Amino acid sequence: MKNWKKCAAIIAVIALLVIFCLPMYFALKGDFSQKEFMASLFTVMFVAVMCYVILMLFKYLNKKKDGQEKSSMIKNVIFDVGLVLVEFNWQDYLDSFGFDEEKRERIAKATFQSPVWDERDRGLYDEETYVRQCQELAPEYAKDIAAVMKDTPKTVRRMPYAETWTKYLKSQGYQLYVLSNYSRYMLDRTKKEMPFLKYMDGTVFSCDVKQLKPEADIYQTLLDKFGLKAEECVFIDDRPVNCEGAQEAGIHTICFKSFKQAAAELETLGVK
Fold first, then answer.
1. Can you tell me the mean pLDDT for 114-129?
2. Cβ neighbours of 44 (radius 10 Å)
3. 225 Cβ partners below 8 Å, 6+ apart?
4. Rounded distance, CA 99 to CA 109, Å?
5. Longest C-alpha distance within the chain, in Å?
């Protein structure tokens, strides 16, 4: 097949050279007529235009073919949980305590906006240790911080589309997985808000593997645990940095902004 294409290309190049040389040929002939010269000139112009059109058509068809081949590779859809399949509204939750503005800001920075909150998802220590670490960041509000941390599961509510979306994708034959940073304390108390878990073929929660996104290890853990090929997976996460980590592992990504936007981007990958 490759030899056939090579021969055809050589013949085409020779034919084009002959056609482009026609005006010169007629110009050098002693008995050429203006009619012959103009005919050959228009032939050259026509062939040039047609070559351009054929080239553009070839590029378009190749691009479409590449897109179809790329989309046909997607077999696995991997979901983050927080702010993708469940709501995580810590702002309204913190407002419910009625703290004054300064106090609220200090407590927010000691809890939800602190490095301790992220490390809590790694699950190396028990909940009491993480609460104590938060209290050390604002010791004057230790009692209030304990109260805030105790009811943090209240920040999580299921998204109205989550179960329908995952059920539909499962019915279309896709394998579904969860890859999420999640603390043991929160996970044990919010699973009731995750009815979509029954459609998952597997889950990797950070607290179970003691790894965090966007660290490279956690993406490889998911791939290895379930025998997945990176190029056959698409990962949906609301944080760009987590998507970048997945991309470095060779996984297709969608940075989640809304259900409509994510569903549309899945369609561009052929996931319908």
1. 98
2. 16
3. 202, 204
4. 14
5. 107
Q: How many residues does the chain have?
A: 272
Q: How far apart, in Å, are the Cα atoms of 250 and each of 14, 177, 182, 208, 223?
A: 44, 16, 23, 23, 11
Q: How many C-beta atoms lie closer than 10 Å to residue 98's C-beta?
A: 8
Q: What are phi and psi of 97, to 5 degrees?
A: -80, -15
Q: Between the CA of residue 10 and those of 7, 16, 17, 193, what are the distances in Å? A: 5, 10, 11, 65
pTM of this structure: 0.75
Domain that holds residue 191: 74-87+157-268
Average pLDDT of the chain is 88
Q: What percent of the chain has pLDDT over 70?
A: 75
- Rg over CA atoms, the chain: 30
CB 249 within 8 A of CB 230: yes
pLDDT of residue 272: 87
Same domain, 129 and 10: no
CATH at 230 = 3.40.50.1000
Q: How many CA atoms lie within 13 A of 31 on its CB side?
A: 0
Structural domain tally of the chain?
Answer: 3
